[in-house]
Write a structure and sequence with these properties.
Helix content is about 70%, strand content about 0%. The chain is mainly α. It has a domain at about 190-310.
Length: about 300
């Protein structure tokens, strides 16, 4: 179709729409939609642009029910008319915008981000149902979304989230049972676990400090040097520790922590670490007796341990 023919068709369409009843306009939109959807893969770029122009004019005059029907038909179409799709995606009525937000591959990321920033929870939940979304959109959903949205994001393994967004989800899960269950089945990226291990909130950091195998001795030592006693206890609860970490816990911890660590022979201490524990045991007979059960006490420290047991 030539440009002149297209303009003539547009003029004729406008004249027809000005006098057509609502029912007639709905019938026209339905026929054009069926014509497009039935052969969408065959149309050229110019033809797609023409459909976009015609349908855009029609939806500005269409009733609510017609827009819902149109949205459902266009949502799964890979080359649906761009301007029509974007307009439908921004509708406040989720019955109209929902199918497009959930399924349409035509909606650009910047439009999804705009909608995620400005619309309500129903729109955010619809976006969260998409097969995939980019990191920026995912982060907005985490920031603004309610529990339902957060659970959808977490349960969709194709979604890409930033490290910060993942941290936020993990923190929110503390007070959200449904989200906690969703997070529990997710493979948390190692970089996120490391970041959470450094968190000042003990309830977030503790499970990672106690069990995670992604934390290196250097990381554990760094945390042991810089965090409070509860973090130290979490580290001291690990099934095993190298000397470099254990010695820092002894230096900074209290006798209760030393008791816990001394009773685990898989936690190793240097001679200096043993000396500090034995010195602390002078005022703590329980600690002294626990240390005495170990098989790796340096011989030169045995006399001092006997004095502590005194």
């Amino acid at each position: 179709m030539t440009a002149d023919a297209a303009r003539s068709l547009m003029t004729e369409l406008d004249e027809t729409l000005n006098t057509a009843s609502d029912e007639r306009q709905r019938a026209i939109l339905r026929k054009i939609t069926e014509l497009f959807v039935g052969r969408s893969e065959e149309y050229s770029g110019d033809q797609l642009a023409l459909f976009d122009d015609v349908m855009f004019r029609l939806i500005e005059r269409s009733e609510h029910s017609a827009l819902i029907e149109l949205s459902s038909k266009l949502a799964p179409v890979d080359n649906a008319p761009f301007n029509v799709v974007v307009k439908l995606s921004k509708e406040d009525d989720i019955a109209i915008s929902g199918p497009i937000l959930e399924k349409s591959p035509v909606v650009p990321d910047d439009t999804l981000a705009e909608i995620a920033k400005t619309k309500g929870q129903n729109h955010l939940a619809a976006i969260a149902k998409r097969a995939s979304i980019n990191q920026n959109v995912g982060d907005i959903l985490v920031d603004r979304g309610n529990s339902e949205v957060a659970c959808r994001i977490t349960g969709n393994h194709s979604q890409r989230l930033s490290e910060l967004a993942f941290v936020k989800l993990m923190k929110r899960a503390r007070n959200d049972k449904a989200l906690a269950e969703a997070v529990a089945i997710v493979d948390v990226p190692p970089n996120v676990l490391v970041r959470l291990a450094y968190d000042d909130d003990f309830t977030i950091a503790a499970p990672i400090l106690e069990r995670s195998n992604v934390l290196t001795p250097e990381m554990l030592a760094d945390i042991a040097r810089n965090k409070g006693i509860r973090h130290l206890f979490a580290i001291g609860s690990r099934p095993e520790l190298p000397e470099s970490v254990a010695d820092i816990l002894v230096e900074r911890g209290n006798t209760d922590l030393m008791r816990r660590m001394a009773g685990n022979e898989r936690i190793k201490f240097s001679e200096t670490g043993f000396a500090r524990m034995i010195n602390a045991a002078k005022g703590d007979k329980v600690l002294a007796s626990i240390i005495a059960t170990r098989s790796d006490i340096p011989p030169e420290l045995q006399p001092f341990l006997k004095l502590a047991l005194g």
